[in-house]
């Protein structure tokens, strides 16, 4: 698959040949759903439990007499009615982490890249911004026609000036080539890859 390469300002910069094994895979909704679900569930933190009667450090010895004290009978300071006692019917620990086969994960990433290759993929030669100003970068994006939410996946060709200016623009996110993931790719309108990021992604699956 041959794709046109452009510069940051939108000017043409030749062509690049994309591997069909990475960017030419037919997407499947079930695979993409499994990978996105796995990714989002693993982002969730563990639900912290509350301490119940058996978890609090209180004496278990009976205090006071059973009769004659004029008060209710109690046998444990860890009861929920006492200050410092355990929580009654408290929240239980829940861990949301899931497991997924590595081959399915890799296939899902290929399908996400392939879906953007058909519609919404932009390949640039490099992302170097000499004048690291937010308005300068916004002008380049408008010329290039990058609309909506933009995900930039780059390698060493993404300089610090571009990354700093991109932080101030709403709707544009920058990730390294090894940080490419299915959810972020599908959740953006435009996917921008640098030439070295394309090489890294292809080497990631072929290596």
Automatic annotation (TrEMBL):
Assembly and interactions? Part of the 50S ribosomal subunit.
Gene3D superfamilies per record:
3.40.1370.10
GO BP field: translation
Q: Which InterPro entries match?
A: Ribosomal_uL4, Ribosomal_uL4-like, Ribosomal_uL4_dom_sf
Which protein is depicted?
Answer: Large ribosomal subunit protein uL4
Q: What domain of life?
A: Bacteria
Q: Describe the task this protein carries out.
A: Forms part of the polypeptide exit tunnel. One of the primary rRNA binding proteins, this protein initially binds near the 5'-end of the 23S rRNA. It is important during the early stages of 50S assembly. It makes multiple contacts with different domains of the 23S rRNA in the assembled 50S subunit and ribosome.
- Per the record, the gene is rplD
> Which of UniProt's keywords are assigned here?
Ribonucleoprotein, Ribosomal protein, RNA-binding, rRNA-binding
Q: Note whether Signal occurs among the keywords.
A: no
Q: Which GO terms describe its molecular function?
A: rRNA binding; structural constituent of ribosome
Region listing for Disordered, in residue ranges:
60-79
Q: Which organism is it from?
A: Qipengyuania oceanensis
Protein family (similarity comment):
Belongs to the universal ribosomal protein uL4 family.
A GO CC term attached to the entry: ribosome
